[in-house]
Design brief:
With 69 residues, the chain is of the alpha+beta class. It contains one helix and three strands; from the N terminus they run E-E-H-E. It has a three-stranded antiparallel beta sheet with strand order 2-1-3, with helices on one face.
């Protein structure tokens, strides 16, 4: 992958009461293009909200433990 591209996770919801759910990923050089790509690629549902988050900015609240094998 090109170094200037980032992976963005895409989250969306269809109704206000629904939680945001992970609907996919896009790869883009910046957040503005990632949002545009997400709207274009994941437009098959009537979303009321959609968010993109750079994977590098995600923070683990709980991590899987390393295997002691």
């Amino acid at each position: 992958m090109r170094r200037d591209l980032k992976i963005y996770d895409v989250f969306a919801r269809q109704r206000r009461k629904d939680p945001l759910m992970h609907v996919g990923t896009v790869t883009a050089p910046n957040a503005d293009l990632a949002a545009a790509y997400a709207r274009s690629i994941y437009n098959e549902e009537p979303w009321i909200e959609m968010r993109v988050v750079a994977r590098q900015d995600e923070i683990a609240a709980i991590e899987l433990e390393e295997s002691f094998a």
